[in-house]
Amino acid sequence: MENVLVLVRHGESEWNKLNLFTGWRDPDLTETGIEEAHRAGVLLKKEANVFDIAFTSALKRAQHTLDIILDELGQKGLEIVRDQALNERHYGDLCGLNKDDARKKWGEEQVHIWRRSYDVPPPGGESLKDTAARVLPYYESTILPQVLAGKNVLVSAHGNSLRALIMQLDELSTDEILKLNLPTGEPYVYRLNADGSVASKATLSA
Questions:
Q1: Fewer CB within 10 A of the terminal residue: the chain, N end or C end?
Q2: Catalytic: which of 10, 64, 90, 158?
Q3: Is the overall model pTM greater than 0.85, yes or no?
């Protein structure tokens, strides 16, 4: 099958496990995250997916996930493009803080607004709208042309950078995207039409 775009959120990171705001900080995968990445690779292999190019962020948890998936697929020599345009949302002053401690410092309601509003950023950080403002131009200029050229493309990135992309692909409203939580290590498989719209979508889970 051609014109396939597969999106995978990285496996559980060390800071996911510790309930910390991560953003652009660079922890690696936990043992669970490594297992999730292997499972994603196995699921994609069952679907007989063969990729032509892969994209990932500048952060090791997404890169490590991608490396494991490609190893499972027997495609370790695949061309990989790494770019910080695909990085996780930057949490600014919240980076490195335990989420419960942040609630104690700023209050439950304020932290909830920062985490779940579309366009209100945390201090020094990005909103989901800000994240989309860097992810979507990169997708349209660099990733989408590969898919429309008939290639199969794999993207290993982050919860919020992928939510920004899925919002456009699935034509979701700002309210709908805020309700979407992407599981770690679960591939989303899109097949695109010639105009970049979605012809079909499937979620692979064990």
A1: C
A2: 10
A3: yes
